[in-house]
Amino acid sequence: MSDIAYKLVDRAEWAAALAAGAYAGSALDLADGYIHMSTAAQLAETARRHYAGRSDLVLVEVDLAPLGEALKWEPSRGGDLFPHLFAPLPATAATPQRGLSVDADGVMRFDDGAVGWP
Description:
The protein is built from three helices and nine strands, in the order βαβαβαββββββ. By secondary structure, it is an alpha+beta fold.
């Protein structure tokens, strides 16, 4: 399992999370009862499937080590194990964020001019 996960978040929601000290999750996260995250290998497909056509997003890199037992690796898409956080995400577990949009084809376009995900 990876020590790092990624979360695509609405820019305004992330700004509010930073001010509050924690991110409670998106509407989908709240409905499902956990915060959905992806590994580096899963991120591009997550963006394509769930964020195509969205702008004003930030990509948050999450250090999984301090999340403890609230973090569960659970099977999802095709049996892949995804990191799910069953608690608010502490802002202190997130490292620098990158602004981006996801075009209609599901390609991530970062504010710094980078296109796609390695």
